Amino acid sequence: MDEVITASDASATLRSAASEPSIVPSNIPLLSALLSLALAQFLKLFTSWYKDRRWDSRKMLGSGGMPSSHSATVMALAVSIGIQEGAGSSSFAIALVLACVMYDATGVRLHAGRQAELLNQIVCELPPEHPVSSIKPLRDSLGHTPVQKVTKPYLLSLGQVQVVAGAVLGCVVAYLMTS
């Protein structure tokens, strides 16, 4: 006897085949964010070489530098969600608020670095018999380049340029991934 497949059987089979996990995730916002992160970290090799004229592979894993990988990541996430789901979605609102942390991150890291410098100086001035005098110094470079004394008044500090460059990179990657 011949079996007859109905339309509901065929659509159920199609739904079950489509719900099987794929090797490559199809979450475009997540892929955009991760690609932006990887690309920004990879580009740090070249920007640090341009600045110092030497290759430093540790820059690929470290924080700070040009372009900001944190900014690239959150902007790629926000832009791709905005393109995919629209600016009125709750997901876009959450991603946009998260992206606004970029502004605060430059200032927080700057001040934390200044505090580390001051604490390191205090520890160095302690007598050798003091229990704290032999601890490892704190890292005083915590991310993006702080504002430096310059002869010309610039609109943005170097740290802010690093953040803006990362944000632009994230926007471009998100746009290319969603189109």
From the alpha carbons, calculate the radius of gyration and give it in angstroms: 24 Å
For the biggest sheet, the summary is:
none
What integer is the average pLDDT?
Answer: 77
- In percent, how helical is the residue content? 55-70%
Shape: elongated
Unreliable residue stretches: none
Multimeric status of the protein:
single chain
Q: Whole-Å distance between the termini?
A: 50 Å
Number-wise, the strands total 0
Strand content: under 5%
Structural class estimated from helices and strands? mainly alpha
Overall domain count:
1
Protein name: Acid phosphatase/vanadium-dependent haloperoxidase-related protein
Pfam families: DUF212
Transmembrane segments: 28-50, 154-177
Keywords: Membrane, Transmembrane, Transmembrane helix
Protein described:
The protein has one domain (27-47, 67-178). The longest helix has 25 residues, at 28-52. Helix content is 61%, strand content 0%. With 179 residues, it is mainly alpha-helical. This is Acid phosphatase/vanadium-dependent haloperoxidase-related protein. Keywords: Membrane, Transmembrane, Transmembrane helix. Pfam families: DUF212 (PF02681). InterPro entries: DUF212 (IPR003832). It comes from Punica granatum.
